[in-house]
Amino acid sequence: MDDILFLAHRIPFPPDRGDKIRSWHMLKHLAGLARVHLACFADDRADAAHLPALREAIGAALGDVHIEIRRTGKASAGLKAIANGRPASLTLFDSAALRSFVRRSLASGRIGTIFAYSGQMAQFVPDPCPARFVMDFVDMDSAKFAAYSKTAPLPMRWVHAREAERLFAFERATAARADASLFVSEAEAALFRDRTGLAGIHAISNGIDLGVFDPGASFPRLAEADRGAGPILLFTGQMDYAPNVDAVTWFAREILPAIPGRFVIAGRNPAPTVRALAGPRIEVTGAVSDMRSWLAEADIVVAPLRIARGIQNKVLEAMAMARPVVASPAAFEGIEAEPGRDLIVADDAQRMADAINNLLVAPARAFAVGAAARAAMVRDYGWDRRLAPLADLIAPGARAAA
DSSP for 238-289? Predict the structure, then answer.
């Protein structure tokens, strides 16, 4: 098989946040099919410093690498976007150096497929493309900005509405020229098909590392002082991400007063709004060394997202750790599991509070939900199973010919 050029908006290592988890497993899987060359951005020097570990993890299958620290700020990107009429999501990640690397890679004659991870990276794929072009949108980002525009205060409501409109036009044009376009769930894929009328749209879901996220695995346990007394209600995630901020703020305001226990918000970079929630019944941890430590101690994991796209890794991780999960419909969307057996889905504040209270007073029921959750993950969510369709999308008919 010819070489693959993998483009990513963040260095796909370590797999310690949602977008990196998927990109890492995609990259590793593709490296099992062919030699892979990588062009990506890094958030800062510390992020870029993960390259040696990435090379060691992939081995000889990783070829040429271009990595650069992204220095364009959101305000600057927004002004450029207004000036040139493009989505801000593209100007935020633009780079002449990365474009040059792509041109040189294609000129080598080795590249049979360009695999672009996240919509921002499609701008680096030439049109027409001399190689097969597989676009992993992951989520329909334009729909996310459209959702933001409905609730944000002015003037951000206008900003988000403009981004939704411009980004959708770019997503549609990209999918129209790609050989295959991927989304993280069938719900996202179906939404895109419905809005664009395009073919070649596929769903490849996220998986879960079942050996890592296993309640029986070896990992640090919380000290008794950290565990505290009473039930732990846990939310995990990147805590400067707007949908996560909205979720914990809503939960603290509308649901926590109706239930017992301590609400623990675990995740890096808590926004000022999140830090302000800390108090007698709410703990904001910031970054933790191993999220499994908190997951193992949680009585219930909550996912009260009101704005969500694609698959929520936080839900998969909690289920793999055999924790009972109470999730909103938005957080549950795209997950192949049975509500009421594998997790609890509640569609408003009162029903979520009732579901949590019912589990807290019935530990046997909570244990059964957690056990069913783990079984569902083991049955359907191993990464190899989830990513098996990639081979035919990269080189159609190659396996049949072999």
Answer: -TTSHHHHHHHHHIIIIIGGGS-SEEEEE-SS--HHHHTT-BTTEEEEES-S
